[in-house]
Amino acid sequence: MDQWWNDPAELAGRYAGEVFRLAYARTGRRADSEDVMQEVFLRLLRARPAFRDGDHARAWLLRVASNCANDWFRAPWRRREAPLSDALPAPEAPRPGGALEAVLALPPKYRIPIHLYYYEELSVAEIAAVLGRSEGAVKTQLFRARAMLRDLLKEDEDVSEGL
Amino acid sequence: MFQKDYKRDLSGLSPSPAALERLDGLLKGGRRQRLMLRHPGRRAVAAAVLCALLALTAAAAGPTVWDALTAHLGSFTAYLTGGGANSVSSGVELTVAGAISDGASAKVYLIARDREGRLDGRASAALDLEGANSWGARALAYDEESGTLLLELEADGLTDGGALALTGGTLTPGQYWATRHLDPAGVSHEPLECTVTDYGRAVLLPGQAGQTFDGLDGLTLICGFDSTGTFHLRAVLEKGYSMTAPVQVFAVSSDGSACIPEPEDRAHLADGQDVVLPGVSRENWDQVTDLWVSLSYKGPEEPIEGDWTLTLTARETAGVSTPADFSLDVSAGTTVTGVSLSPLGVVVEYTGQPGDLPPDAVEVALAGGSSPEWGETSAWNWGGEGYLIRRFAAPAEIEGASAALFGQTVPLA
């Protein structure tokens, strides 16, 4: 297909992993991340936006993934799960002392901007466009998140280098 | 280096083959369903109009938002502080009615007014929040006559002395969150009609006898067994509605155990979801004593995106707390570092694991030894630092009150 960016199956083949990893960075749970991935592509099928090119499609998918992951996190049964924790399967633990573990220890609102910056390597302007926020708000969030990550990783300078 | 380390950690994570198979099936099936749904019948259109009319009638009968706020807060209204900030964007005026804070968490009350009538009593709001972590805002009341919506925003992890800044934002009308009890005895043992998805999963067909619920527009739930005896719960949404979270089903057995679905038990469909419960079938259905379903979905209304800016200070309700150097080991690796008691409830700050501090680990005795009536409990733990908050059902007089952790009284001043 010439315009592969308008073929949902092609988009899933290229970007399902990215959508899954963004969701994981937000939720920290494989099961939730797989559900978010399904929901994102379901929304793609429903909306069928006409993308200009591959970058446009990728930005749309990342934005919807961010919204879906936030929705998942806000679902009422997620909010008070501490008393239910014994009944729920334990989430897979990321590598102890690693960067991912530190990102998952951040307050939720900082995780997606950090993920988009360090994993997807988007610029501040691109993150602002994906998240529908001002560049100033994104810069502030990145600044605060980096400070928290430095604090979380202060005992391992090799990992915190570059923050 | 952080970036290299982060990429390495994440590159080892990918969706499971089963999830990718489900996604593939969804994409193949979705194409067909899209074609089938292109021309809704006259009956479906008439039903949608009727639903809209019923929704308008219900909303028009609502109380004014100020009445609703004082009714919602009851005697807690006296602790509302920090109101007044105001911002207009995308035709919607947002005003801070006030906030109630125990120093660790806050509930912020916002009033949204839209003269174009795009809001409804189911709207939620998501705004960037500085100074705390936000759980988003939900509607408490809507006055259709004035187009005014009352929202409650929950925030925890307050920093900066309760100074909060809300910016950006999206108001999303037509959000449905519900938990419903279903009667296991009402589930027919007759096999229901199924179809098989492209990835080989049997799902219940829509259009069969199902259950609808007051206040849950656009939704039908079909419960029953397929021809092999496997139990299914099928959520069917009308056109324009979409799920915003996985359908959660909890089946409780007579021995007290609960069965909940795993991701692979859930099929995402263009018009809803189909969930099976592993191990639950027609053969052992008589052991199921309770059946609960939780749903989160949205209607066809368009979200309103804006650029609001609101600042406020959620002032901590005065109370008593442990000394700054207080520390109490409650288990190996979990230490309580502070306890605060206010007319709103008790806040426990700790480091360690959330499972080591269940809600009833902290108790309060009021003057004279009576116990307060408890309201909601809230708990969170980010990276090993956590809070447990038990709120009173009504404001309590804390003069002469005491708090105890695992039966051990803590010093409060």
Describe the structure.
The complex is a heterodimer of chains A (163) and B (413). By secondary structure, chain A is mainly α. Chain A folds into two domains: 1-92, Rna Polymerase Sigma Factor, Chain: A, CATH 1.10.1740; 96-163, Winged helix-like DNA-binding domain superfamily/Winged helix DNA-binding domain (Arc Repressor Mutant, subunit A, Orthogonal Bundle). The model of chain A is unreliable at 76-91 (pLDDT under 50). Chain A has nine helices and no strands. Chain B is mostly beta strands. Chain B folds into three domains: 17-55 and 177-298, Apoptosis, Tumor Necrosis Factor Receptor Associated Protein 2, Chain A; 62-174 and 303-313, Immunoglobulin-like; 320-410, Sandwich (Immunoglobulin-like), CATH 2.60.40. Chain B has an eight-stranded antiparallel β-sheet, with helices on one face. In chain B, strands 20, 21, 22, 23, 25 and 26 form a six-stranded antiparallel β-sheet that branches. Chains A and B meet through helix 1, helix 2, helix 3, helix 4 and helix 5 of A and helix 1, helix 2, strand 4, strand 5 and strand 7 of B.
Task: Offer a quick outline of the entry.
Chain A is mainly alpha-helical.
Topology (SSEs and partners):
The complex is a heterodimer of chains A (163) and B (413).
Chain A: H1 8-27, H2 30-47, H3 54-74, H4 76-79, H5 99-104, H6 108-118, H7 124-131, H8 135-152, H9 157-160
Helix pairs in contact in A: 1-2, 1-3, 1-6, 2-3, 3-7, 6-8, 7-8
Chain B: H1 2-11, H2 17-36, H3 42-60, H4 65-73, E1 86-89, E2 92-101, E3 105-114, E4 124-130, E5 133-143, E6 148-156, E7 163-172, E8 175-182, E9 194-196, E10 202-204, E11 219-225, E12 230-237, E13 242-243, E14 248-253, E15 258-259, E16 266-269, E17 272-281, E18 288-298, E19 304-313, E20 320-321, E21 328-331, E22 334-342, E23 345-351, E24 362-365, E25 374-382, E26 385-392, E27 402-405, E28 408-410
Antiparallel strand pairs in B: 1-2, 2-3, 3-6, 4-5, 4-7, 5-6, 7-19, 8-18, 9-10, 11-12, 12-17, 13-18, 14-15, 14-18, 16-17, 20-22, 21-22, 22-23, 23-26, 24-27, 25-26, 27-28
